[in-house]
Here is the input.
Amino acid sequence: MVSFTHFCGPKCSHCCFILSLWAIIMLIILGILFYNHSTALIKDAPDATPSGMETAGKNCIIAAGIYAATALISFWQMKVNYRVAERNNI
Here is the structure.
């Protein structure tokens, strides 16, 4: 019997975990670069002003936080899948 906490399979949970880790790293780096007014990213800001770049940087950090929550859920599902697999093999 599968409990209600088991909603994501092992392959999906591993894939989501790896992609979430990559997104966290990338978005934190982008957020720092936007917040420090990187000239390479000036065209990517909502408006080419320092406040627009700081807003984009804050948005990247917020998105990294959301991906951190996704990584935690995926890690939790990996552990649940591991326990289910152990229980079924014994």
The two ends are 15 Å apart (CA to CA). Helices lie at 10-35, 50-89.
